[in-house]
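Example 3.2
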Amino acid sequence: MENVTRKAFLAGAASLAVAPLLGADGRPRRTPLMLDVKRMAVHDGPGMRTTFFVKGCPLRCIWCHNPESIDPKPQEALFQHLCRHCARCTRDEETCPTRAYKLYGRPQTMDDIVAKALEDKAFYDASGGGVTLSGGEPLFFWEWAAELLGRFKAAGLHTCLDTSLYAPPAALEALLPVVDMWLPDYKAHDDERHQKYTGVSNRIVKRNLERLVAAKAKLEVRCLAVPGLTDGADLAARHRYLASLGIVGRQVVDLEYHAYARSKYLALGMEDTMPPERGER
């Protein structure tokens, strides 16, 4: 891709990320760039799934393992450990010989997303799988997400939503009819700790989690244990709180922390905020 073409693409994609499209009712609707698609996924809900990742998130978790998903605008990344320092760098993902260059965030139509999901429908049907929407934070674009998941449902696909639950009440009400299974993260029980490490309060998260329980939504709550930060007492407090809501057993999944994303922070030119793994101290 020539530099002029690449710059035009980035400018166009960025404007799409920050200038919302209009919804069916004529009101502005925030529309995400797409970050990635993972086919044959087995950890994003039941069965075999296709997971679509949107770009953009209102949280700033210091341990974020997908830092490329935070900013809603497109980002270029250069992985120096892969770069051969070619005499003429194309800065093009498709022609880079070592995959050192990566462009995160591309516009994609809803029709194309649904068509991609339907390519693997036979595998969903055979395994009890379906489609998962992840991010970033899909509820950052909740009106768009409600329409997309509604289209998945109309096509006969099982739907999961991977979310922080940091969203207004209207988002949950819009998504409840079109989400078969919710996969919320519960990042920290102590609100001060939650604000310190994610940038936002967990009061909204708890309110929305309790709303899902009241609606008898199918849940699998993920609890990441970051050594020295959200393990130990805070993890135990999260378990007690979830149990008080009736969320127990296989509805709760504890996740082990890894700092595999350090190379992404470097490639993106972002400050590496990831805490050390257990044993790194």
